[in-house]
From TrEMBL:
Record protein name field: Glycine dehydrogenase (decarboxylating)
Keyword Oxidoreductase (UniProt): yes
Cofactor needs: pyridoxal 5'-phosphate
UniProt catalytic activity: N(6)-[(R)-lipoyl]-L-lysyl-[glycine-cleavage complex H protein] + glycine + H(+) = N(6)-[(R)-S(8)-aminomethyldihydrolipoyl]-L-lysyl-[glycine-cleavage complex H protein] + CO2
Similarity-based family: Belongs to the GcvP family.
Listed GO CC annotations: cytosol; glycine cleavage complex
Gene: gcvP
Length: 950
């Protein structure tokens, strides 16, 4: 046996245990199990054609060679991306720490208080700096955040505006080019008309529902938007400002202009450029929009004992509840990056941020002065970090490149220079030298930075920010390290125990896959550098596209969408463009089975489609007769079917090829939701079942960690018909021949984390990938076998097998008033994160162990589930029992009083393994309703909301 093989490290069950597990299930071999699981006619006949597997050490050497192919120039391109310093204490304790990066989205608040607290810091920081009342806990990037604001304004038009069909949205010509491209893509299917122009000439008498401005503008110029905003307000036009977060330290908060929303990116708060992402975007608005806000909001509430607790608030806005009426399709956001950006603000505090902003600004002013001394004209009279020099840009570019420097060249005679936190005096002198050489002059040396020009400006910031204690308490490394650890200890992540989340595939995120992310050769590349400086990246990105195209059995791949839901939207938009290209603009019906994930209908609406829901059978399969009837009924307007495969119930439906055929026969295309791809890789694929496009969740199937709720990557893979429409970017061309303008801000989305799936596939190779799929199916069926005597297992294939996930029915426990939440919370006492609760069936748990969990861990989980069943059986008091009171905290257990009808040991140490490895929930069960009634989503003293109720 080659013990060096990565597959042996990635896959949990040891080879000798596999035999035992197969026996327990009652099959002789893995092949037999797969035979019983997968319907005939969709199995792959050949092994995937991928490069042979390599070991971790070989991969790291290979990665190093690729990294060296990236050229790290000093880059002053700006355009929404600036080099930043990631404080080493944050790099080591959060970015490189599985306690943070392997956590799941904080649906189970009791085991997520650490990251929820960190996200609350992020929201507070954003609300303070923008001067707005509330902020969400991150969106995917600045462009999509701007598009969300446009969508929010469109949805909240006045009755009169709706009646008059007001569809115009004004876009300042100072907007970032990639933001404009994302807005264009979004506006089209909603019927919004973008009008681009100079905000100073805007005609307020015309009918517009909204407007977006950039602050400072893309040119670097700072405009006073007071009068625009107040005139817009009078005309019923809502205004969103896209603002540079660091500039807000020096500039009046946009909230003071009276705007309705402020959006932007927090990348420059310590997050690596990573050739475009991932970075956390922010969205801040007025409290009156709280029910319209896209994405996740963290809010404060109390637990069962009245202690302060944090949780996700107002979830009734979200796609998983509101579906096609949701405020956005956001599911995975950018949690890890938001945590890091928030922690950057905690570490630096208001004084530290002022120091950084001053340094950046003073550098720009000093540079401007020196270049003027050299005889150049600087075009911006007020600016924060960006100056524009009148000069022959071809000539400057030539000299700059020879000196390994990148500027931005907006026109033949303009050079734009954006400075950043990393810029040193030496860097500034190197820039001066480039311009001196171009002018044929002796260079002049800058010795000290001069004072800035903003402090006396009419827009100088006077309002305080980050006054809360958390931003003023952890400024030494020791203090911050302990604060980060204190939060980390409240959270249950994969480094503690298995997180068997159906549909979310919480598999191993191997250290060898993660290590290269810290390499500056990957981290320090701006997304808009000339592509020849990013050769290493292009080998990885092209390599990954090819790998995914092969795995899905399709024709081409786009890595641009930065979440699964964005992939859905992107995929549906390619279908839309395809129909349009054939003169079928009227094809707008999207069939979606009732069991679909909430992002499906929410994304269909974003793509301008009308959702028609099709029924499921009582076995959980698509009702083929109902589907056929609806496909035929809408045959003239059918655009697409969205189908999850294997189904959200974890079953490979045998009718899948018939289903895809019905759709094609009626003129539609088939969108396959690829969240369950972990059941397919190497044994079947979407191409084989007859789909036309799918997204993949690289943060599920392909080993990108969940990050506590992001980052994600949701590439789409398409058949040849749809390939021409894959999205591009206005600054760096990518995608198809007649592409969508842009889905995300960056050309390759979250390029940095694409290293992870690339590594995963390289190290497993075709055989390891297939084996992983088989083992994921084995692990699930093993749990099924162990639990089937104790719980009802819903749905299975025709031969009684589950696929890679299965559903445990908790509804029969209702006779003793036990709800699915009680079992979920009791699992915490046993050291486990709950499986997926109430999706796709209310009152159930969906379990997906993945291939990475060992037999010992599966057994531990099964023992816990079985013990909980026994506790349920022993219940005498329906209101006061082990399940209803779960989770039990240390505070409860050590209290002088103990008023429960069971012992402390039964509460906290019901099984022996807990005695040596106990996870303590930091709060008791959180009160969801209280928090929604008293929305509080910034850090503030607890009394304010506990009192709010009284
Ligand atoms: C996770 C998931 C999605 C959404 O993916 P995100 O990356 O979270 O946006 C869509 N469909 C299904 C079935 C999923 O499980």
């Amino acid at each position: 046996m080659n013990t060096d093989s990565f597959a042996l490290r990635h896959i949990g069950p040891r080879p000798e245990k596999v035999t035992e597990m197969l026996q327990a299930i009652g099959v002789d071999s893995l092949n037999q199990l797969i035979y019983e699981t997968l319907p005939d006619g969709i199995k792959l006949e050949k092994e995937l054609s991928l490069a042979p597997a390599i070991s971790e050490q070989e991969y790291l050497a290979h990665n190093q060679i690729l990294a060296e192919k990236n050229k790290i120039y000093k880059t002053y391109i700006g355009l929404g991306y600036s080099a930043a310093i990631l404080p080493p204490v944050i790099q080591r304790n959060i970015f490189e720490n599985p306690g943070w990066y392997t956590a799941y989205t904080p649906y189970q608040a009791e085991v997520a208080q650490g990251r929820l607290e960190a996200l609350l810091n992020f929201q507070t920081m954003v609300a303070d700096l923008t001067g707005m009342e509330i902020a969400n806990a991150s969106l995917l990037d600045e462009g999509t955040a701007a598009a969300e604001a446009m969508g929010m304004f469109f949805a909240t038009r006045s009755r009169q505006q709706k009646k008059d069909n007001v569809v115009k949205f004004f876009v300042s010509e100072e907007i970032l080019p990639q933001t404009l491209a994302v807005l264009e893509t979004r506006a089209y299917p909603l019927g919004i008309e973008l009008v681009i122009g100079n905000h100073e000439d805007f005609d307020f008498s015309e009918d517009f529902f909204g407007a977006i401005l950039q602050y400072p503008g893309t040119s670097g110029k700072i405009y006073n938007y007071h009068s625009f905003t107040s005139n817009a307000y009078k005309a019923g036009i809502k205004v969103v400002i896209a603002a540079d977060i660091l500039s807000l330290v020096k500039l009046e908060a946009p909230g003071n202009f009276g705007v309705d929303a402020v959006v932007g990116t927090t990348q420059r708060f310590g997050i690596p450029l990573g050739y475009g992402g991932p970075h956390a975007a922010y969205f801040a608005t007025k409290e009156s929009y709280k029910r319209n806000l896209p994405g996740r909001i963290i809010g404060i509430t109390k637990d069962k004992d009245g202690n302060r607790a944090v949780r996700m608030a107002l979830q009734t806005r979200e796609q998983h509840i509101k579906r096609d009426k949701a405020t956005s399709n956001i599911c995975t956001a950018q949690v890890l990056l938001a945590v890091m950006a928030g922690m950057y603000a905690v570490y630096h505090g208001p004084e530290g941020l002022k120091h950084i902003a001053n340094k950046v600004h003073n550098s720009a002013v000093s540079l401007s002065q020196k270049l003027e001394e050299l005889g150049y004209q600087q075009l911006n009279n007020t600016y924060f970090d960006t100056i524009r020099i009148k000069a022959d840009s071809t000539k400057i570019q030539e000299i700059a490149l020879a000196n390994e420097i990148n500027f931005y060249y907006p026109s033949k005679d303009t050079v734009s220079i954006t400075l950043n936190e990393t810029t040193t005096l030496e860097d500034l002198n190197n820039i001066i030298r480039v311009f001196a050489e171009a002018a044929g002059k002796e260079t002049i040396t800058l010795k000290n930075l001069t004072e800035g020009i903003l402090d006396t400006h009419e827009l100088a910031r006077t309002s305080p920010f980050l006054t809360n204690e958390v931003f003023n308490a952890y400024h030494s490394e020791t203090e911050l390290m302990r604060y980060v650890k204190k939060l980390e200890r409240k959270d249950l992540a994969l480094n503690h125990s298995m997180i068997a989340l159906g549909s979310c595939t919480m598999k191993l995120n191997a250290a060898a896959e993660m290590l290269p992310l810290s390499n500056p050769k990957w981290g320090n590349i701006h997304p808009f550098v000339p592509t020849d400086q990013a050769e290493g990246y292009h080998q990885v990105l092209k390599g990954l596209e090819d790998q995914l195209t092969e795995i899905t059995g399709f024709y081409a791949t786009s890595l641009q969408p930065n979440s699964g839901a964005q992939g859905e939207y992107a995929g549906l938009m390619t279908i839309r463009k395809y129909h349009d290209s054939r003169g079928d603009q009227h094809r707008n019906i999207c069939l979606i089975p009732s069991s679909a994930h909430g992002t499906n209908p929410a994304s269909a609406v974003m793509a301008g489609m009308k959702v028609v829901v099709t029924k499921s059978t009582d076995k959980g399969n698509i009702d083929v007769d109902d589907l056929r009837e609806k496909a035929e009924k809408y045959k003239d307007s059918l655009a697409a079917l969205m189908v999850t495969y294997p189904s959200t119930h974890g079953v490979f439906e045998s009718a899948i090829k018939e289903i895809t055929q019905i759709i094609h026969d009626n003129g539609g295309k088939v969108y396959m939701d690829g969240a369950n791809m972990n059941a397919q890789v190497g044994i079947t694929n979407p191409g084989r079942i007859g789909a036309d496009v799918c997204h993949l969740n690289l943060h599920k199937t392909f080993a990108i960690p969940h990050g506590g709720g992001g980052p994600g990557v949701g590439p789409i893979c398409v058949v040849e018909d749809l390939a021409p429409y894959l999205p591009t970017n206005p600054l760096v061309q990518t995608g198809g021949s007649t592409p969508l303008s842009a889905i995300s801000s960056a050309p390759w989305g979250s390029a940095l984390v694409c290293l992870i799936p690339y590594a995963y596939i390289r190290m497993l190779g075709a055989k390891g990938l297939k084996r992983s799929t088989q083992m994921a199916i084995l692990n699930t069926n093993y749990i099924k076998e162990r639990l089937k005597e104790h719980y009802e297992i819903l749905y299975s294939g025709e031969m009684g097998r589950a696929a890679h996930e299965m559903i445990i029915d908790i509804r029969p426990l209702k006779d003793k008033n036990i709800e699915v939440a009680d079992v979920a919370k009791r699992l915490i006492d046993y050291g486990f994160h709950a499986p997926t609760v109430s999706f796709p069936v209310a009152g159930t748990l969906m379990v997906e162990p993945t291939e990475s969990e060992s037999k010992a861990e599966l057994d531990r989980f099964c023992d816990a589930m079985i013990a909980i069943k026994a506790e349920y059986e022993a219940i005498e008091d329906e209101e006061n029992n082990l399940l209803k009171n779960a989770p039990h905290t240390q505070k409860m257990l050590t209290a002088d009083e103990w008023n429960f009808p069971y012992s402390r040991k039964q509460a906290a140490f019901p099984l022996p393994y807990l005695e040596e490895n106990k996870f303590w929930a930091s709060v008791r069960r959180v009160d969801e309703a209280f928090g929604d009634r008293n929305l509080m989503c910034t850090c503030a003293p607890i009394e304010e909301y506990i009192d709010a109720e009284e």
